[in-house]
Write a structure and sequence with these properties.
This protein is an all-alpha fold. The chain is 68% helix and 2% strand. It has a two-stranded antiparallel sheet.
């Protein structure tokens, strides 16, 4: 299935709600951090309460588990905040256009959780949305593998941008930051697993459960079957044409079964029954 993408000029009103919420929280929390450190230079304030600090996440008997999901909103530098907001606009918005807000938010926090778990084992405090930003680029690359993006006027594929950004991130200083590499790789692996297998599993589970319920349904009376066979051929072609079936299949792959209307579900049910082997 082919997907087409083009980046329109920035329009805040056209951004999806999930992108506005995440971007707005990033900017607001960074502003509060800057204000707090201006008056109290030694007090990180919100960072102490929401960054990923392994000792506090695993503290017994009151573990602070919310840090697993709040650390992406803590940015300690303006450059990191800028990259996060740009990634949300350039890569996040097109992904939301294909998945919807709910699935995008699920994916965003799955990347955050996947990146955070190894840091707990390594006892490494982290903050920032780097892993989530890389996850958005990954999702964009899987949805639009043939798209061309520009990095300082240099054209490249989304996959190349992931590699380039990862190298820039881990090669800061005089030696490779292995822990940072593990952090990024873990977030990307979690995002890839979610895209590659979780959506397929959900579609299969829904199909299986629907099949169980359909077995318990009463058989269609013969009179209704006979009446259905007598429908005009022209009307049947208009309702069950292959173009419409292909469109619905594309919609299922892009947004899931829950996105179908009642009419589309009925059309697919008739189509599958008509094409069952006798």
């Amino acid at each position: 299935m082919s997907r087409f993408f083009s980046q329109d000029p920035f329009d805040l009103r056209a951004l999806p709600p999930s992108v506005k919420i995440i971007g707005g929280l990033n900017i607001l929390i960074y502003a509060l951090l800057v204000i707090g450190t201006t008056f109290h230079p030694l007090d990180l304030g919100l960072a102490n309460h929401f960054a990923l600090i392994p000792d506090r996440v695993l503290r017994w008997p009151m573990p602070e588990l919310w840090r697993l999901f709040t650390h992406p909103f803590i940015h300690l530098s303006f450059f990191e905040l800028l990259l996060s907001v740009v990634a949300l606009w350039f890569f996040g918005a097109p992904v939301v256009g294909q998945w919807g807000d709910r699935e995008f938010l699920n994916f965003y926090f799955i990347c955050a959780l996947g990146a955070a778990l190894p840091m707990l084992l390594l006892n490494r405090p982290v903050a920032g949305s780097t892993a989530c930003s890389y996850g958005m680029i990954l999702a964009f690359a899987m949805l639009y593998p043939d798209a061309t993006v520009y990095f300082f006027l240099l054209p490249m594929k989304p996959w190349h941008m992931i590699v380039l950004f990862a190298l820039m991130d881990v090669l800061v200083g005089t030696k490779i930051d292995v822990v940072q590499l593990i952090y990024l790789a873990s977030g990307l692996a979690a995002g890839y697993a979610y895209i590659r297998w979780w959506e397929t599993f959900k579609l299969g589970a829904k199909s299986f459960s629907r099949g169980l319920f359909e077995r318990d349904e009463e058989p269609v009376p013969r009179r209704r079957v006979a009446a259905r066979r007598e429908e005009p051929v022209r009307a049947q072609k208009a309702d069950d044409g292959m173009d419409e079936v292909d469109r619905i299949l594309d919609k299922i792959l892009a947004s899931g079964l829950e996105s179908l209307t009642d009419g589309e579900r009925e059309l697919m049910k008739r189509y599958s029954q008509r094409n069952k082997p006798s």
